[in-house]
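User: What would this chain look like folded?
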Amino acid sequence: GSNVDVYAYYPYISGTTAAAGTTLSLATDNTATTGIATQTTTNQKKIDLMKASALSSSSAINRKNPGAALKFEHCMSKILIRLIIGTGYSKTDFENKVSVKITHQPYEATFMPLAQTLTVTTATEDFISIVPAKLESTDADYMKSTETGYSNMLYCYRALLFPNDSGDGAKNPVTTDATRQILFTVDN
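Assistant: Here's the prediction, encoded as structure tokens.
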């Protein structure tokens, strides 16, 4: 007859405990010491994090009433970058000459399932650049052919990052004096 609280997160990470939580890494090799982290559409699925909870204080969850309504929320920030060529330039002016990085991004954070918090654990001096995934036209975030600017779009990128705002009124998980910047480099 006792009520229970239900906590959930996705994707499942083996070894996660309520006391220790789990460490998340934006580095694709999980070492974060080998240089710039490159995101791909495949490893972004592993980086993404969603959380949900159903507390007995708002709805009795017990053996007689076992249903827990879980509404999942994304914990990461998604940045979508579409590079559209402006008037006076051609696509060949930029094709295979553009690189994009997002600077001053911490690469590790700890997620606590019971508290439902995400806290950055890397120090300011360890901030690195993230190279976003270059998307193909089959990706859901790719610009649709009916959207304005589609014919002038050269590249479409996406990156998953630790957010500046935790969204729960707590202190921001990304705390640094350095401002994140999207850095475009054109080798021309």
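The chain has one helix and 13 strands. If you want, I can go into more detail on any region.
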